[in-house]
Amino acid sequence: MKIELPEHKKLVAEMAMPIRWGDMDAMGHVNNTVYFRYLETARIEWFRTIRCEPDPQGQGPVIVNAFCNFYKQLEFPGDVVVKTYVSDPGRTTFESWHTIERVDQPGVISAAGGATVIWVDFPQQKAVTLPDRIRQIVS
User: Fold this and answer.
1) Residue 44: CB partners within 8 Å, gap ≥ 6?
2) Cα distance between residue 127 and residue 120, in whole Å
3) How many domains is the chain built from?
């Protein structure tokens, strides 16, 4: 199955992580909710590396939607690599995209997902313009 990501996506990070035995469900494969945890872990680590962590007294990123499409089951044991892409910066938002593949099966996408990120002023509880520094990173 061919996975379609936006034409203008930009690869910004790759992160490997183990499939844990506890990630599996009664069917013997990684539970669908865990895929979202893999995506979140990769996204938060990327945010940390670009100094983009939320500041409850200031501004930062908030996820306003998230999705994941499942293509191939993941099973313990093994490791996955999550690739993070960005695209489509707007005034207050940008899109993040992810692919998940087993380390021992490079190029075989097990799942693909993403999230819309909005920049928020937390004390004011409203969206604000993306900072220039973040806009440059996601453009």
Assistant:
1) none
2) 4
3) 1
pTM (whole model) above 0.85: yes
pLDDT in tens, 16-47: 999 999 999 999 999 999 999 999 999 999 99
Name the residue range of residue 95's domain.
Answer: 10-138
**Residue 13, SS3 per DSSP:** strand
Query: How far apart are the C-alpha atoms of 18 and 76, rounded to whole Å?
Result: 9
Q: Which helix (H) or strand (E) holds 99?
A: strand 93-102
pLDDT band at 8; cut points 50, 70, 90:
confident
Q: Is residue 124 part of a domain?
A: yes
Enter the tokens of residue 86.
Answer: 């960005």
Q: List the CATH number of the domain containing 64.
A: 3.10.129.10
Q: If we measure between CA atoms, which residue out of 55, 42, 54 comes closest to residue 114?
A: 42
Question: Is the separation of the CB atoms in 98 and 84 below 8 Å?
Answer: yes
- Give domain status of residue 131, yes or no: yes
Residue 66, Cβ neighbours under 10 Å: how many? Answer: 15
Q: How far apart are CA 10 and CA 106, in angstroms?
A: 19
